[in-house]
TrEMBL record:
One of its GO terms (molecular function) is catalytic activity. This is Histidine triad (HIT) family protein. The active site is at 99 (tele-amp-histidine intermediate). Gene3D superfamilies: HIT-like. Pfam families: HIT. A motif (Histidine triad motif) lies at residues 97-101. It comes from Microbulbifer yueqingensis.
Length: 119
């Protein structure tokens, strides 16, 4: 059996992280190496490796993660933000537990996607 991901360990409380939101389906933490003034990670409690591993029954969870992004945008008064999901090593994913990056409060350029190291 593989080791739990860093996100599974954060969810379990084994590793500290600055939590900004949580519910029964996900947690949201601040990225430790932010690429924008607001850089949050929306992480499902269910340990899916990537979107490619999601099954039909995960559709409500995936929708919930995007809804949480919108809710945080409203709560934080953001007038815009970018959502990024890296799926697989070739796409820059380095933590193999599905998560969505919410980046805001900085003008985003197309090049920013290429400059982002993953997670």
């Amino acid at each position: 059996m593989s080791e739990p991901s860093v996100f599974s360990r954060i969810i379990a409380g084994e590793i500290p992280a600055e939590r900004v939101y949580e519910d029964d389906q996900c947690i949201v933490i601040r990225d430790r190496a932010p690429k924008a003034p607001t850089h949050l990670l929306i992480i499902p409690r269910k340990p899916l490796v990537s979107v490619l591993d999601a099954e039909e029954g995960d559709r409500p969870l995936l929708g919930h993660l995007v809804w949480v992004a919108g809710e945080l945008g409203r709560r934080l008064g953001l007038d815009g933000f970018r959502l990024v999901v890296n799926n697989g090593r070739s796409a820059g994913q380095t933590v193999f537990h599905l998560h969505i990056h919410l980046l805001a409060e900085r003008e985003m350029r197309e090049q920013d996607l290429a400059d982002h190291p993953g997670n």
